[in-house]
Predict the structure.
Amino acid sequence: MGKKDFEIEKNELEKKFGQQPTDQDVLYSLFNKLVVQTSDFQDLKSIYYSMALFLNEEGHDSLNANRSSAKMGLAALKNFGVKKVEILVNSGCEECQKLAGQIFDIDKAMTDLPIPNQACKYDLNNNDKPLCRCEYLPVIDD
Ligand SMILES: [Zn+2]
C-alpha cells in the first residue's frame, strides 16, 4: 500500500461524500479495506496494531484497535497449537508491571483480554493517550 492507493482512495471518498475527505478519513478507510481483504491472523494483528498506532498519534482513543490486534495475535497463537500464554511487559508503566510474567490459558486470555491493559499509563506520543505495548508470549511446556 502506498501513495498511489492513498490518492485513489481519496478520490473515491470525495466522490462518495461530495467533499474532500481529511487524510485521517482516507487512512482509516484504507485500514478498514485491508482488514476486510485479510484472513491471516498474524497479518490482521499487524494491521490493527498499525491502526492503533495511527489513532494514538492523532490523539484518538486507540484501545479498541489495540484490543483487536491482541485478539488476532492470540488467534494466531491458538492456530499454532499454543495452549498457554505469558504476559511480556514492554513498558515501564506500573500498572502493566503488575501483570508481568502472569500466565493464562489461551482461551481465558481471549475472553478476558488482560492486555492491552486498560489501566496502562504508557504515553507513547506524550499526548495523554496511553497505548499499551504489552504482548502475549507462547508458553511451551513439555
Ligand atoms: Zn501495558
